[in-house]
Write a structure and sequence with these properties.
This protein has 224 residues and is mainly α. 80% of the residues lie in helices and 0% in strands.
Length: 224
């Protein structure tokens, strides 16, 4: 009988490294997913609050409204991806996500409205920016309506995640899979930072296109 060789049962160093990298990027399970969703939501709260101020003073702050709208693209995609991931894992009968229970009924109910209004507000905004003042027409009204629907339902969605944010802030040391723990932490930081970075790059790159809108708004404000 051949003697048992313990070395054969040990994974190769390269496989252990790959496994460690994989856990660092996507580990964390439902708790890690919840925290990614929660922190992305907290970033959105701050940006949406500032965006709300730009609406009140749109004549003077249109440039900031345009900049923040583009900056939001990254965090919004991260938020939708993390929320969508949990929905998919739960409804494809993943045992770990099923054990955590279904998403809140109200979150499931408003999810289609959040997704639809998000797509509408960003698509109309980007088209308006590309077309300039001359091509606005009904598109401006569609952008306004979708914007207010989006803000209302996104704010409600984020508010429903505030208890999770409060728990994260109150007991950081007790979180088994928090942003500060090894499993999945790198991936969550990469997604959050990467989302903001991508949004910032897009916003900065499109600053030259703000000119026609800011000039037009300034002219209207001057006449009034």
């Amino acid at each position: 009988m051949e003697a048992h060789d313990p070395a054969r049962t040990q994974p190769k160093p390269s496989l252990r490294l790959l496994s460690g990298v994989w856990r660092a990027l996507v580990g964390g399970g439902p708790e890690g997913n919840e925290e990614l969703t929660t922190i992305a939501g907290a970033i959105l709260i701050v940006l949406l609050a500032v965006l709300g101020i730009t609406i009140i003073r749109i004549g003077q702050l249109l440039w900031l409204h345009l900049f923040l709208g583009l900056l939001l693209l990254g965090p919004v995609v991260v938020k939708m991806a993390s929320t969508g991931y949990r929905f998919v894992r739960y409804y494809t009968l993943d045992a770990v996500y099923r054990s955590k229970g279904p998403p809140e009924p109200i979150l499931r109910a408003i999810a289609p409205i959040v997704v639809a209004s998000t797509i509408m507000v960003f698509v109309t905004g980007i088209v308006l920016l590309a077309e300039g003042v001359s091509g606005r027409g009904m598109l401006v009204e569609l952008h306004k309506v979708s914007f207010f629907v989006w803000v209302a339902f996104t704010a409600l969605h984020v508010l429903l995640h505030l208890p999770a944010l409060a728990r994260w802030l109150r007991v950081p040391g007790s979180r088994p899979e928090g942003l500060g723990t090894p499993s999945g932490a790198a991936g969550r930081w990469l997604m959050l930072g990467g989302g903001l970075a991508v949004g910032l790059i897009i916003a900065v790159a499109l600053i030259p296109d703000f000119g026609t809108w800011t000039a037009h708004t300034a002219a209207l404000h001057h006449h009034h």
